[in-house]
Specification:
Elements lengths: L2 H11 L54 E4 L8 E3 L5 E4 L5 E4 L5 E5 L6 E6 L5 E5 L4 E5 L5 E5 L5 E6 L5 E5 L4 E5 L6 E5 L5 E6 L5 E6 L4 E6 L10 E5 L20 E3 L5 E6 L5 E5 L14 E6 L2 E6 L17 H6 L8 E4 L2 E7 L5 E5 L4 H5 L9 E4 L6 E7 L6 E5 L9 E6 L5 E5 L4 E5 L6 E6 L8 E3 L11 E4 L6 E4 L19
């Protein structure tokens, strides 16, 4: 495991910008404002609907754990598509959208398509949609090349799914929500918010339930469709085995209403009454410090009772009023108007802009890792600790990382190896499969979340996404293909049950 690169991803790029509670449901999903110029989605006219494809019969899956075959020589991509010509299509490290089939033949679809790309899907017309985290955009590439922006202004767009009407669903990792987008018009609405680092997305066989994984939370939630515009609040199906719910911190267990607290997944909050007799640590943005001031004006606030000078940040789609972020003014000024992972500079050191827990962009640099050691100065191994990391302070345990840093304050969820869920897939029996990004393990949930079992240990340390075969070009329909981004190898898991036929992949229904 490359600890330094994993650490940067977890600590700098994976802090929730929305409210995170310990409840099984997410907050109200209504929003009053939008982050960019795209109109809010009220009605959808996407042409002729694709229709729900005829699903394969639910058969008895193979005994767990399953056997696996390794296929070599593919693309070290974050996500991929198996297309109607038998190619595995994805974006390589050079940012090129290419395809490789099992015979080793290659095709270049679009050079320099994007660098910080994540989720990907193919539409019925043969075009590709993918998330560009660097620009906060949903991109669309036509079969003959040429890219266009469908929607911009998103907070780390990640996983992608498409329904039978051709509507695209995107998880916004840093905003804690799932967005529903018409790819023809760019109009959008929101399916859910208040999630912790939502990542992979996958529909059930009837397309009435949308499942989402949490990166760092180790959870799978289910969102049930009421109408196209109305969805039930996310229902927690359960945690992966690496997460023991009893070990999850309870920030306000011994506190009073109004007390400052550190939120479970990182960030400063305030203890509030959840209405059930339990106190929760809710996001506490300092709006009062910016009353009468304009965006960019200096403001004074506190970070866990320590005075801090910052800069007022204007209203966003996440925050209704201007507020004073709990980060130094230079960190905020360097990232004003920037997208995630833009270059920035703080105290003569270069770094990256990342979304903080309050919804403001913050400049984070390598030397900020020293704050993990500062949290354990004067403490013993195993002691409780806190680290005032710029984009999301956390509580944790003092652990020995002398091979890399020293004694550091490790967050309760580790560096991503605990509950770093990414990929997700559903079989014809509505069982749910998830991949744990760092550990390389694949698990299967029962449809109601009542049981979870180990499917396979890939032995890889970077398994972001997986898809069922489509019956074309040697990609078998009862095999689950897991991509290893470290080297482009594909782990073919012999699960012996068909997967959900994706609604908008050309040739799927013809290949049955």
């Amino acid at each position: 495991m490359r600890l330094s690169s994993v650490c940067f991803l977890i600590l700098a790029g994976c802090h929730c910008a929305g409210t995170v509670d310990n409840d099984d449901t997410a907050p109200d999903t209504t929003l009053d404002s939008t982050p960019d110029s795209s109109p809010v989605l009220d009605t959808v006219d996407s042409g002729d609907p694709g229709g729900i494809p005829t699903q394969a019969e639910c058969t008895e899956p193979a005994a767990l754990p399953v056997q696996s075959e390794t296929l070599r020589g593919f693309i070290p991509a974050e996500d991929f598509v198996l297309d109607a010509e038998g190619y595995l299509v994805g974006i390589d490290y050079g940012g090129n959208l290419i395809g490789i089939n099992q015979d080793g033949d290659r095709k270049v679809i679009l050079p320099n398509a994007g660098q910080w790309t994540s989720g990907m899907h193919q539409m019925l017309d043969g075009s590709y949609v993918f998330s560009d985290a660097a620009t906060g955009s949903l991109m669309r590439v036509q079969p003959g090349g040429g890219a266009e922006v469908v929607v911009s202004g998103m907070a780390y767009p990640n996983g992608i799914e498409v329904d039978p009407e051709g509507i695209v669903y995107v998880s916004e990792h840093d905003a804690g929500r799932v967005r529903r987008i018409d790819p023809e018009t760019g109009e959008y609405s929101f399916v859910a918010q208040g999630l912790h680092h939502p990542n992979g997305l996958q529909f059930s066989t009837d397309y009435q339930t949308l499942y989402v994984t949490s990166f760092g939370g180790g959870t799978v939630h289910a969102m049930k469709r009421i109408t196209d515009q109305d969805w039930e609040e996310p229902l927690l199906l359960g945690y992966v085995p690496s997460i023991d719910p009893s070990t999850i911190p309870v920030p306000c267990a011994d506190a009073q209403v109004g007390a400052a607290c550190l939120m479970v997944y990182g960030g400063v909050g305030q203890c509030a009454d959840g209405g059930d007799g339990e106190l929760s640590c809710d996001v506490d943005r300092d709006h009062a410090a910016c009353e009468g001031l304009n965006a960019g004006d200096a403001c004074e606030t506190t970070l866990m009772d320590q005075a801090i000078t910052s800069v007022c940040v204007e209203q966003t789609d996440i925050v209704e009023d201007a507020f004073c972020p709990r980060a130094e003014d230079t960190r905020i000024e360097q990232c004003a108007g920037q997208t995630a992972y833009s270059n920035c500079r703080f105290e003569n050191e270069y770094g990256y802009c990342v979304a903080g827990w309050e919804g403001a962009m913050v400049c984070v640099v390598d030397s900020d890792y020293d704050l993990m050691e500062d949290g354990c100065r004067g403490l013993e191994l195993g002691d409780d600790c806190s680290a005032l990391y710029p984009s999301g302070p956390w509580t944790g345990t003092c652990m020995d990382y002398s091979h890399h840093w020293g004694v550091v304050c490790e967050p309760w969820f580790g560096w991503g190896e605990k509950g770093g869920l990414d990929g997700i897939a559903v079989d014809a029996c509505d069982n749910i499969y998830v991949s744990e990004y760092v550990s390389g393990d694949v698990y299967r949930y029962a449809p109601d979340g009542s049981a979870i079992d180990l499917v396979h240990e890939t032995g890889a340390t970077w398994v972001p996404n997986m898809h069922w075969g489509n019956g074309i070009g040697g990609w078998e329909e009862d095999v689950l293909y897991v991509l290893n981004r470290d080297n482009g190898n594909v782990h073919a898991l012999q699960v012996d049950v068909h997967g959900v036929l994706e609604a908008y992949i050309p040739g799927y229904t013809d290949a049955e």
